[in-house]
Amino acid sequence: MRVRISHLHTLSAALLCASGAAIAGAQDDAKGFIEGSALNMQNRVLIEQLDYQKGSSFRATSGKRGQTLARESAFGLMLNYESGYTRGVLGLGLDAHAYGAVNLGTEADHARATPRYVAKDGQDILDSFGRAGAALKVRVSSTELKAGEMRTKTPIFSSSDTRLLPESNRGWQVISKDIPTLTLQAGRFTGWADRNARKNDADLLANYSGMTSGSFSFIGGAWATPIANLTLSSYYGKYADNWNTAYLGSFYKLPLSGQRALSFNLNLYRSTDTSKAKSGEIDTTTWSLMSSYAAGAHKFGLGYQKVNGNNPFDYVNRGSIWLENAMQLSDFNGPREASWQLKYDVDLAGIATPGLSAGVAYTRGSGIDNSHLNAVYANYLGYSGVNGKHWERDLLVRYIVQHGAAKNLSLQLRYGVHRTNKAQGEANMNQLRLQAELPVSIL
């Protein structure tokens, strides 16, 4: 999708104006600022242990080196408020959030210095911390514009919520659903708050090059095609002074008889450096394909992923990688890497008890060539080997309470193992994570 990012403001304005011509839209059903409000609270407890194997070591938050066991535990509280829209052709509203974390026993000598839960780079661990933000919103028909602090969800710029607290970004975003079967999005973000950040509006950060930027801009959308159960999506984004990324995705589900179905999920990224190239020369094409077969409570998956290029597939924000083989402990995104995944998921409601589910996955990557990394990635990652290979095994068990005072309480056990050779560059580790979540609707 070759659309110049400098035209995003013009396009967004056009989307807002065009939506006024729609016969009916979401704004027609506006309940009012207060009447349509919702306030929700999410409680989360996380306990994690990372056991580094075969001589692997890390630097703890305290500065202590040579550790082999990392431990963290914390409680997270997330309040999310969404107002309704004022009535009329133009609806106004406000979204706000407040996130807080409490240390439940994490010690600086045993927590990783690299960000995870309550540990923070170069700082002692606080007993508690938090941050808050808000975004103004405007709606015409079924086109909505938000400006402020918010979470995002697109294949090239997406906010992660896989740790204690969610990450968020500062900027603006417009989403239009006025055209039937088509969802259009455009946005520009200039600030970032990581999942364990103490404040908002830090510079945007690339995950693998470590390079910062003043903005990320994108445009794209998803189309529910006339072919039943086939969805196509395409996005184009610019990480200012670093790289451009084009994305193409598709999902197709073929229903079969007897509660059976086949599905195919394709994700393709094309990344090239910009003129300033702060992350160095980049020319990578990365794609993944997951084929799944579902039969009643059982689902089997076979995935393949390939990186074509001399550098790893890089991305901004922790959740902006929708590749199928981006796993719990590794993204399997090394230069020239090819990886396979086998997975199995089962809904144990009819076998054991309602609310119980489980899944297991095995992913193996090989052919990694770190010998041609550009200077930025070579200095940041410190990798140089050829013929790198690794594997990861993940087990997940989840139970959601179905009745009583603890209804909707989610309990999750995750166990992961990652093993690698020296050429691949990442750590050998075992991960054990316990997680409990309780959502509460206040308003």
Automatic annotation (TrEMBL):
Residues 1-26 form the signal peptide. GO terms for cellular component: membrane. InterPro entries: OM_porin_bac, Porin_dom_sf. Keywords: Signal, Transport. It comes from the Bacteria. One of its GO terms (molecular function) is porin activity. Belongs to the outer membrane porin (Opr) (TC 1.B.25) family. This is Porin. It comes from Comamonas testosteroni.
